[in-house]
Structure formats: C-alpha cells, structure tokens
Amino acid sequence: MVKYAAIVVNRKAAALDRVFHYGIPASMSIERGMIAEVPFGTQKLEGVVVDIVDEVDFDNAKIKNIIRTLSEKPVLTDDLLFLARYLADYYLTTFVSVVQAMLPASMALTGRLPAGSTIKQLYALKYIIEGRKAPKSQAILDYLVKHPGITPLELQKAVRATSAQIKNLKNKGYIEVKESVWWQEKSIVVPQKPHQLNADQISALVAIEAEFNSSERPILLQGVTGSGKTEIYLQMAERTIGLGQDVIVLVPEIALTPQTVSVFMQRLKTKIAVLHSGLTAAERRKTWQAIADGRYPVVIGARSAIFAPMPNLGLVVMDEEHEVSYKQENNPRFNARIAALKRCSLTSAHLIMGSATPDLVSYYKAQNGEYKLVELPHRVNERELAQIQIVDMAQELKEGNNSVFSSLLAKELEKNWRQSEQSLLFLNRRGFDTFVSCRHCGYVVECPHCSVSMAYHPQEGKLKCHYCGRMLTPPQTCPVCGSSAIRYFGAGTQKIAAAAKKLLPEAKIARMDRDSVTEKGAYEAVYKAMLDGKTDILVGTQMVAKGLDFPNLTLVGVVAADTSLNLPEYRSGERTFQLIAQVAGRSGRHKPGRVIVQTYNPEHSVIKAAVRQDYKNFYEEELERRSLFGYPPYGDFIRLVLSSTDKTLLEDAERRLSSALEILRGDKYVILGPSACPREKIKDRYRHQLVLKGSNLGIMRKDVKKALEQLVAEKQLNKKVMVAIDVEPITMM
Predict the structure, then answer these.
(1) 357-366 pLDDT, tens digit each
(2) One CATH from 3.40.50.1010, 3.40.1440.60, 3.90.550.10, 3.50.30.30 for 4-77
(3) pTM of this prediction?
(4) Into which CATH architecture does domain 636-727 fall?
(5) What CA–CA distance (Å, rounded) separates 250 from 256?
(6) In 196-206, which positions are buried (b, 16+ CB within 10 angstroms) versus exposed (e)?
(7) Is 235 in a helix, a strand, or coil?
(8) Which residues pair with 595 in a beta bridge?
(9) H-run or E-run covering 198
C-alpha cells in the first residue's frame, strides 16, 4: 500500500507555509521528523516530514515521490513538531521559520564529518574594505564579523560568495583561516558529592518533590543571590536521570555556559552536551545528531537549547528566568519561557524557573497559584548580602569631581587591589565615548544608515554604529557649522577600563562585552582568567550581571545606575531593579562584600528598592503602577513594526494597516500609533510601529492575522514594506 509524507519545505515565504504531499517509494524507510529531499517545480528542496498518511484528497497521479532521505533518523521529535506549530500560531509566524530555528544551520544536516577530522574556520581580521568600494567583499566581512568561526562552504551559501572571493580577501589580509579539530568527546570530570543542605534548601526540595509527585505545575524558585539555587537544580537533575529521563538546562548567556557545564559535570555521572550560538554550524549539527541518538541525557545551553531533540525529556531548568535574552528579537520572535512551558506540557516534563529577581509576570502568576512558588530567602552558610552604598553623582560634580568614578569608588578600587581582592565594574554601554558632538552648534554624529549616535572606539580609531556595524573616521571639524569644537561625551566600557587603568596602572584589567568577546572561546578565556586570579578588575555590560560566581570578588561598582531607568519603555523600572540587584549579588558570595551604586537619582524608588534588595516591595509598587495603565500582567501587547527604504510607501502601508485594525477592534483593545520607532532608521530602513494593547491576547492575534491576510489578498501592502510582528514584546525600541 502506497503511503504519503506530509512535508514542510525549506522556504520561509508565507505562501508556502503549508504541507506538501509526496509519495514514499516502497524501498524507502521514513519517519516523522526526518529530513528529505523533494522535487518542487524545477527545483530540489529540503523539507521536514511532519506526518505520514495513507490517503490524500487530490489526484494521486499528480503526486511526485520523495527523491531521498537526508537524515538517517528523525532530527525532530513528535513533541518538537507539535511545539513548532504551537509557536508559529502563538507568535504569528510561519511554521517553517520555527522549524528552521529549531534545527542547526542547515536543514539537510549534510556534510557530517567523522570524529577527529579537521575543519577550516574563517575569522575577520579587518572590517572595512579600504580604498574603492567592494560591495560583495564588504558583505562577506559584515557576515563574518557576526558569525566568526564558520566554514568557507557555510559562508559561500550565506552570502552567495565564491571561493575565489574568499581566497582574495584572505590573500589581502582581511580574513584569517584556522584549522581545528572540530569535534571532541568531553571527558567526564570526577564526580563530587552533594553539598550539605541548609534548612531553606531542604524545605525547598521537599516542596518541589511534593509538587512533582502531585502535579505538573511549573516551579518558580525565587532565591536571593548566593542562596544555593544551583544545588536544587543539581539534585532534581540527579533525580530525573535516576528515573531514566533527560534534562535540559537553560542559561541566558553564553558566558554562563562554561561555569554551568563545569558545575554539572562535577556532579552528574553522565555526558553533557552543549548547545548555543557560539558553536560553529558543524559543531551544532554533530551535537544535535548525538542528542537525537540518545547519547546525551543532559543538554546545557542558551535559549535555542529548549529545542534539543531529547527522546525522553523529564526536566527543564531555566536559570535566571527573568532575563530578556530568552526572547529572540528576530523572526521567529519566540520567548524560551513560553516554549519551555509548552514543551513540558507536551511531554509531561517538569519545569523549574529560578531567579533572585523573577520576571514580574512570572511572580504574579506564582502569587496567583498558576506556578508553585518556592523561596530561598537566605544565602548559604548564613553569609550576609553585600553592603550597598549609594553615591549621588550630582553632588560629586558640585564638588569638582568630573571622573567616571566617584571619590568613594576610586578609593575602594584601590583598597581592594592592595588587598589582592577582585573588583567588578558594571556599565551597560559598550565603546569608549557614547557620542561625538559639536559644542558650538550641538550637532551629534549619527550613523548615516541608522538613526542612532555613533560610539567612539579608540582601538580602531573609529566611530562605530552598534546596530549595523558601520565604522567612520571621527570628524576634525563640524560638517554643519565648520567649528573645530568637536568633543567626545558619555562613557562606555572601554572608557571605564581605561579610567581604571589610569587609576591603578599595575592592575590587570579585563572587559566582558560584545566588542571584547567576539572570537570563539573568548567568554571562556575571560571567565577562567577571573577565576584563576589573573584579573584584578573586570569591566562589563549586562553579561557580568548574570549568575557568574567568583570566590575572590568582593567589590562591585555600578558606574551608572540610571542607564536603563531612562529608556522609554514600560519595563525600564523592572530592568533597572534586576540589573542592580543581580550585579550586586556577584559580590560577597564567599567573603564579605560591598557594592557602590553611582546615580543621579538617589531618591528614585526603584534605585532605593534595588539597593535594599527588596524584591517584594518593588513588586508591589510596580504592580500597582502597571494596573493603572493596563500593562502586563493586566494586559498584553502586540507590536507591529513596518519598515521600508521608501518612507512614502511606509506611511501609506501603516495607514492601511491601522484602518484595517480599527474596523476589527471595536472596543476589544486600543491601538497606539502609528508612530516612528524610538530608533526610526536601522540599516537604511525607516521603521514605524503600531502597538495593540488589550486584555485578550488571543483576540488581538486573531485580528492582526485577519487584517494582514486581508491586505495581502487585496494587494494593499507594497512588497517593499516589511511587517514584523512581535507578540508580547520585550522592548519597544
């Protein structure tokens, strides 16, 4: 009897977001979740088998057969296929885009190399093509800067480059080629015994065990920094593995992966796989296949690790569950928390979400019984939280201190260095100077392709756009008024590091930000140097605020606590509280610690709550504010961002979309806008937004889908206008 395969082809076009049926040759063995090559018009395309059926409702004679299978076994489990459909519907995107996000770089998973073989990896040495314009060469470098360590073949496919073009850039010194052993089995670290639990941890474990035995309700584990949440994760992971089930551990940042892997490998008598965007495509493919084969009962990684093809998932741990990095900001714009909740419900797996400063909506759900709240209110071994002092930087200016460091922070940095103890300086801005301006007329140098100011990077001697990567030579005179009064303002992590070096010339200083850890292994190197005592002062952005544990770190300086407080977003207060509380929690975990918070708003309620590390008071005040304006958890948002290089077409499209939604909405929700995005232009594309706000997310999703389908069907949306849909957006920028 002839059977048919329902296949989703590897094309993201909305018109192709459906299954296509193909005949299965009698000699072919195929299952759901496998990759197959199929004829598609005059082309051959890859696709995922999502179902096997006995009948189809159209002419069998017109059905073409599958050409061949491209994977020996299913690469997507049944629960992942269901999850992909759910996320596509939830986030109003295409099914295939979610499937592509789940899988490694190539859907075909071809070109797998045997263990121990070498692979060529490419790295950019220079970023800007000098002299005459070379668009293709620049495009190659642009891509390579964002994807270091990829193979020549992967680069060729990504930007349609030729091997000759890549070779030419290598010969000119723009590209470096490295050969490395691309896959090595990790040896298992000698296991360690569980730590002695305190009363809080014992109580927490009892509560979690009871919940696991009686329900599948998610656990929200709130514990102050240093309270021993990781030990809870480890013991529940051991329990799960003992039952013959698999474990996924999610961390918000690649920087946390080596620390987490090390801790878990020291305790668990099993192999651990690592999945994150820092791996090369070849490494991801190999790891993915090994997980699908059941060789790794534990997977640790960033948000995409929630899609690991675990054959028998029993537990998902989501550490630092409040972190915004769990939300993907490009299509498909999914939140790993939503994905984890749904996947656990599909597999009857348990979910533990941990944080010292939970997402406000998560905490609200825990307070209302949707999640089980388990608390760890004290640090292990009765260690006290670090002492926190606020410094009023306005007063420092009045007293003649123009430095980025207050007199107190400078004094404490020097004291800490002399005592051979480590310090951390936190500032959530990269670069040296954050903008360049003319003091005569007020002109600010902006990126010609993005409506944002360019930051100065002294190592390159260039101004850099942190959105498109464009670099420019700083002007000597103002292009508007001709004045030579060009000055550099603001401060980024580079300037803070330079100021620390000037203050303490003999101190060993390192940075951890998006500029300093671009190369493969850079995170691990900075982390290890700090752990080994080879770094005296670590300067970093939000990367350093997440879960890192350094025994000799006793001083934390929050250089500018107001940075995120002044953003035009409803979550700015919550984000500020979380960042201050989390980075403060890096200090004093093993020795008495202290924290110095520099601010121009010392009386702001968020700053004061963060300094007290008083989450519950902050939660109550913030919840009251959000209830007044219908912000989450009392309402939801859908953000529609329209973009085009043609502003006239963009404005016409936003009027049409706004009108279509106005007809549908009635009094079910409100529409904010259309209006220009806070950052109106990115990469030469103008950006305008419509924001839907209401109490019923399902109705809003339905109306957005209906309005867009109607406009497309009636050809009222110009193809030069792109519409990005962000359901439950994290940022409005």
Answers:
(1) 999 999 999 9
(2) 3.40.1440.60
(3) 0.82
(4) 2-Layer Sandwich (3.30)
(5) 10
(6) ebbebbeebbe
(7) helix
(8) 388, 556
(9) none
